Amino acid sequence: MVGDAVIAPSHVAIIMDGNGRWAKARKRPRVFGHRAGRDAVDRSIEACVEAGVNTLTLFAFSTENWRRPASEVSVLMELMGKALREYVPKLIDHGVALEVLGAREGLSQTLCAQIDAAEEKTAQGQKMRLVLALNYSGHWALHQAAVNLAQARLDDQTLGELDEAAFAAYLPKPHLPPVDLLIRTSGEQRISNFLLWELAYAELYFTDTLWPDFDAQTLHDAFAAYHARERRFGCLPQQEN
């Protein structure tokens, strides 16, 4: 259980890493780790709802993950579809609205239909927003923004008034707030092309915990580390407030 004394960041993003290594340590195939990782997703959602997180974004499958063996990708897509079907009742019970962020190209029609159904059925959730980054990359999102901007056919005057906030309106999910805390499991220390725009001022937290072992206590530790830091956003300490 997440400690009551630690206030949750508003937007938490997690790179769920280490399923394969978790399985290898147990002399099992990688897919065994992916299946175990689903339990960690359940625990994380429940813990974030309980802690009062407003938005939780999970990096489920990157555009680069298509380079993995076809057999592993097939299992991952199968697990994704199964998870979408099984999570819906739980998300509704927890008051969680699901949104999927990423390119639909390459995904099966069945999976796309499951995504649409899950988003529609959970749309009324008020306690937390769960964003699942599926077939996503930060480069893809920025490219989409550029394409959307070009298709808008703005005139020279409008373009001259286009500041960062106005540009962000052309992102695939323009209402996605800045990330306050990024957590990456398994000891790796990189952001792997994830939420490049939204991570601009995020605090980064890396843990050696492999994703299938991630639990509420690990999340609490990350929140505690987040609150121990001084967030300045380019200012000096004496300029705060």
Description:
This protein has one domain: Decaprenyl diphosphate synthase-like (Undecaprenyl pyrophosphate synthetase, 3-Layer(aba) Sandwich). The protein contains eight helices and six strands, in the order βααβαβαβαααββα. With about 240 residues, the chain is α/β, with parallel strands linked by helices. α1 (about 20-25) packs across α2, α2 packs parallel to α3 (about 70-95) and α3 packs parallel to α4 (about 110-120). The model has no long low-confidence stretch (mean pLDDT about 90).
Number of domain modules: 1
Instruction: Give me the count of strands.
Output: 6
CATH topology: Undecaprenyl pyrophosphate synthetase
Q: Roughly what is the average pLDDT, rounded to an integer?
A: 92
**Briefly, what CATH class?**
Alpha Beta
Class computed from helices, strands and strand pairing: alpha/beta
CATH homologous superfamily designation: Decaprenyl diphosphate synthase-like
- H/E element order: EHHEHEHEHHHEEH
Q: Radius of gyration, Cα only, in angstroms?
A: 19 Å
Q: Beta fraction of the residues?
A: 5-15%
- Name the CATH architecture: 3-Layer(aba) Sandwich
Q: Which residue ranges are poorly predicted, with pLDDT under 50 across at least 5 consecutive positions?
A: none
How far do the termini sit from each other?
33 Å
Shape: globular
Biggest beta sheet attributes: 6 strands, parallel
Across the major sheet, the strand order is 3-4-2-1-5-6
- Tally the helices: what do you get? 8
Could you estimate the helical fraction of the residues in percent? 40-55%
